[in-house]
Amino acid sequence: MKNKISICSLLLVVLLFVSPLAFAVPPYFGISVGENLSFKTSTCLSVAKQVLKNEGFQKVVQYKGGTTVFAAYRNRNPYHYKALVKCLSKSGVIVVIAVAKKSKNVRQKAETLLHKIQRNKSIKPAQKTVPADDTPADDKAISTFEGDKSVSTLTTQSQARGSEQRDVIENWQQTLLNSENWQQTLLNKAQCLSRAEMSLRDSGFYRHFNFDDDSIYGKNDDGYKGLIRCVISESLVFFQVTGGHSRTRDQLLNQLEKNF
Question: Which of 108, 125, 142 is the last residue of a domain?
Fold first, then answer.
């Protein structure tokens, strides 16, 4: 199923406007958007995870309560493809973004993933219902007012959908400044978080030090952010460094993993 050219063009324009330098050098990315769909968020996420696994993605992760699935296809270092699938059930939209170090086939990869997700029988085109105009003549004034209210509601819904799509793009744009990796672990949560704290401090991420239920994070003297997340339910540890220079990020990420 091909997506509307106008929507894809709009997303690309937004991305170019937000970060014009991101397109001058790798990574390259492709975007594919499915619209006017009817599905449940949980079903869409489940289908997306299965499709990604079938396509060879080995690191498929969905954070608890989220509407997004992240994945990496690691047949070379640091990755061949990364992918994001966002299921916006209220808007009837599925967004797929693929990222790669090389531009070849990256757009096709996003379209292929979306096509295979949409092929699932639980994801259907949204049905448009047009009610018959049985309104008596005496009630036309009331109907006109209610019609204006409907137009206002549709406009608000359209704006909300646009806002959701912008949020997806902005969040994904931020991931282009990330270096990250996963490790298997047999540690329990307390042990994992204890090691995470030690690793971050030993690697220089001791400023603005903080934590939540499953993560510990901080900044170093140069403003780079380090994060270690313990996904114990999947027996995984997630390492991430955020900052402006990819070589520095990769070095800091390697240090985090060694110190863990």
Answer: 125
pLDDT, tens digit, 9 for 90 and up, residues 81-124: 788 898 988 888 898 888 887 777 788 888 889 999 998 888 88
pLDDT in tens, 159-169: 555 555 555 54
**How does DSSP classify residue 23?**
G
Residue 156's pLDDT band, with cuts at 50, 70 and 90, is low
Give the pair of three-digit tokens for residue 93.
């939209």
Retrieve residue 212's tokens. Answer: 């939540």
152 located within any domain: no
Helices (H) and strands (E) in the chain, counts: 6, 12
Kindly state whether residues 185 and 250 are assigned to the same domain. Answer: yes
Q: Which two tokens stand for residue 7?
A: 């929507």
Residue 61: which H helix or E strand, with range? strand 59-61
Domain membership of residue 221 as a residue range: 178-259
- Candidates 225, 232, 240, 226; CA nearest to 182 is 240
Dihedral pair phi/psi, residue 46, rounded to 5° = -65, -45
Alpha-carbon torsion 58, 96, 121, 55, what sign?
A: negative
Max alpha carbon distance in the chain (Å)?
78
Looking at residues 198-222, what average pLDDT do you find? 91
Q: Judge residue 14's burial from the number of C-beta atoms within 10 Å of its C-beta, 0-12 exposed, 13-18 middle, 19 or more buried.
A: middle
Tell how strand 68-73 and strand 81-88 pair up: antiparallel
